[in-house]
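Data card: per-record layout.
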Amino acid sequence: MLKQSATVIATYSRRMRLRLANGEEVNARIKGKRIKAVCADTVSAEPIENESDWLITEIGERRNELTRPNMRGQIEVLAANVDSLLVVAAVSPLPDWYIVDRYLCAAELMGVNAIVVFNKIDLLEGHDIEIPELQEYRDIGLLVLECSAETGRGLDEVRVALSGQCAVVVGQSGVGKSSLINELVTDSQQRTAEISSKTGEGRHTTVNSVMIQLQGGGSVIDSPGVRDYSPALLETSDAALGFREIAAAAQSCRFSNCLHMREPGCAVKEAVDQDLISYRRYESYKRVVNLTEKLAEKRY
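The structure for this 300-residue chain is written out next.
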């Protein structure tokens, strides 16, 4: 049987949906238990004799991985080979900015574009409310977009940012990720987007990870909503690399292995004291360090 290269466009536990090189879509399953494919993976697959399913036999080399640790501290891959991480927060439910920071940390470590999208701004109409955290992100050079999937306001800017990109959409449960995606996808993909989600504010709305084509070219991966998230870091020192302003200030620390916690001559702590680095972002960094240390204890 002739093997073909294909892209994983949907995952259903041990079953997958693939897009072949000629554009045809087929269902597939995985050979053995060691292969763990995720959305946007490039795989080798072959048709199974006398069946409609295909068999995934190998996963290609990945450019990057979005990861998280599982309950045992082991690394779980959520998506691969992406160009952008679209981190969605919203007016409601109240944002957990520490979760947003941890996704942004993951994007920095992956070497991909990070875009913060603040959804449901229609709920703020008539209220003079500033969101200081959004300004913090703008101050460190991140792209921050405000929109409403309900009214369509700001969606054109989101479309431009995602054009030609393979982006994974992440965020807390209930922030409207699936509603946002439904407004961005092509008509032919609308049904796919609707099938991938179920109604339920504040609950895990996305059933499976699905890659969906966008109107302006490119694609998005609809990932499950979370109550918490942390990137899977191999070393505690990696945490600073995920906070760009901390990584920049760290170049002036007295010690090259400074963790920016209690060490003398720490340029990061000095920058925080001088309000050059957001105190909240610094606290967020320290939480990532502590989480990484606790997960390392589980592994060993």
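Known properties of this structure: The two ends are 44 Å apart (CA to CA). The CA atoms of residues 120 and 126 lie 14 Å apart.

See the next section for split statistics.
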